[in-house]
Amino acid sequence: MTIGLTPSLTLLIGTDLQLAYGEHAPGAQLRVWEEPSFRLAAAVENGELDVALAYDIAARPGLVLTPVMEEEMLFACRPDIAPDRSTVDLEYVLSCNLALGSAQDIGRRVLARAVGKTPQDLAVRYELQSIAGIRDLLLRGNAVSVLPYGSIAHEVRAGRLAGLRIDGAPLKSTLYVVTRAAKEGPAPWADPLFAWLTEQAIAMAADRQPALVARLPSA
């Protein structure tokens, strides 16, 4: 079975999901792909992936989208340049040197939606379609960003980066389980191993950031 995860989810749960799958189904192999959400959706539609966990995917005929969780994005920066308070507002975020992904990147889209702009119209100082590249800029103190917690979890726990909540208009995105629309035969959820894998992935992602997520009724 092949599952697609976003970079933030891969960092947050990827290794433990592989290990748990190996214990649950010793004779089966799990392949994990890491790509941005928009690429994961295309890969599912093209038959390259059995399932993906991806954010804010637009409906299309070839896909079945099951919303499972809402997640709050964080303002991320180096601790020594972080404001001396527990939260920041949108005005402050927009005044900083932002490092964000392309116009299709989830952090950029969520921020743009919150301030009533298109992703292309945001003032972005550094554009990188790379979590590692953005994280390096943050660690150098050259930029700030808006990211899912998973993208900076290791650095936050180590005290190398700060992740602050954003006041006024919480920047939330919806996580979907993405599968192909079945033309015939049983739906993938009918496979017990598929159902176990997807539920395990969702539960892991929720349990590791409980203050920032809300499971949805469909989950």
TrEMBL record:
Q: Which Gene3D superfamilies is this protein grouped with?
A: 3.40.190.290
Q: What is this protein identified as?
A: LysR substrate-binding domain-containing protein
Domain (LysR substrate-binding) ranges: 2-187
Which domain of life does this protein belong to?
Bacteria
Q: Which family does it belong to?
A: Belongs to the LysR transcriptional regulatory family.
Q: Which GO terms describe its biological process?
A: regulation of DNA-templated transcription
A GO molecular function annotation here is:
transcription cis-regulatory region binding
Q: Which UniProt keywords apply?
A: Transcription, Transcription regulation
